[in-house]
Amino acid sequence: MTVFSIKNVGVFNGEAIERPTELYFQGSPGNILDNDLGTAGTIDGTNCTLIPGLIDAKIDGDASTAMLPKFATFGVTTLIDSSSGTAESSAMREASARNAAMPSYLASGSPVGSGGSDSDAFKKFPYRSIRQISTPAEAESFVATHSTGPVRSDFIKVIAEDPGLDDDTLVALVEAAHRRGMLAVAHASQTSAYRRVMEAGFDVVTPAPITGALDSDVVRGFAEKKIAVIPTLYFLRHIMRMGKIDEHNFSFAVDAVRILHQAGVPICAGTSANDEEGFTVGFGDALHEELKLLVEAGLSNKEVLQAATSVPSEVFRLHDRGTLKPGTRADLVLVEGNPLEDIAASLRIVKVWIHGVEVGNGEQSEGEDNGE
């Protein structure tokens, strides 16, 4: 076992920054360790903070395998794709698995929807393909097909805009997913769709609503059911500036994030990062912009870091990451400064490791021996 240490560093423990301290981790592939088992290399973390690898909870990777190292460079070590088609997602999985220094990749495969009546979603959001169904029986078949075998999805994604799939079909999709231990993620940008998502029992919804203010009973229902929200504020601001929605729509989204957060609804950071012409949002850098917007929407710096680490790991059941506890993956980001004082410090990246592999090396880190 090859062990490395980062010394004299502030470590974000999920609630505060412990400093100065020392963290040990195993190299390629490797986890965080609770003690020194004989280090092969030491990295000096003076004036730096160590945070868990960031999780982008909403991307649209298509089959753009070249985006993987871009995300990694920006400290994004786990990608959750709920927009790309099934074939494209398979290609991305293979590319991620081939190189230990690339981000982990999870995906829903092709989202499911009614195809015709919810076509307005295509005008504002870059869904490349939607699997069309119309009945509860077809919902059951869709989930069964995507729960096993070569086209298995990590979770299901449903277009829940109104009008669209009827309530019985939405419920059938959620119940079929839950019977198979899968999460049900909804696309809902309307306040009316948020109510339908709540009533159907979805686990996650994206983006933040843009058509009006949420009713108090819907906010309360989201909090009671712990339905997580991925606001994608950076993407919404981007399409606002492109004229696809107006400033009033965007203000509804920001207000919704503030109200949902105050009510205790889990908030996950996600970007809808994509390279679709007319919708393009950068791979990796956009997540850091999303963090700033979440601060503006009322989250503290600590809560914003949680939204990009421990909260999505909990929501998406990725219990091997999202924290810096011994035994979890050595997905690590070393940044200059203190992101609890200045969230922009998240972008002042010194080094990144994915499962103990230093990004940029392509192989196990050799550390930086300072003679101590």
From TrEMBL:
One of its GO terms (molecular function) is hydrolase activity, acting on carbon-nitrogen (but not peptide) bonds. Residues 66-358 form the Amidohydrolase-related domain. Pfam families: Amidohydro_1. InterPro entries: Amidohydro-rel (IPR006680), Metal-dep_hydrolase_composite (IPR011059), Metal_Hydrolase (IPR032466), Metallo-dep_Hydrolase (IPR051781). This is Amidohydrolase-related domain-containing protein. It comes from Cylindrodendrum hubeiense.
